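EI: anyone free to look at a 42-residue chain?
SC: sure, send it
EI:
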Amino acid sequence: MFFPISAVEISPLILAGIGFGVGILGGFFGVGGGFLAGPLMF
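SC: here you go
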């Protein structure tokens, strides 16, 4: 998957994995997904 604004190409499986991991951790800790996903996007 290519993001033209940032000129970055990343596998959709990695994005799905990050989303899955954030969902699991958010469920365990009871916090919002944005709080956990923010640091993973850097």
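EI: The mean pLDDT is 81.
SC: 👍
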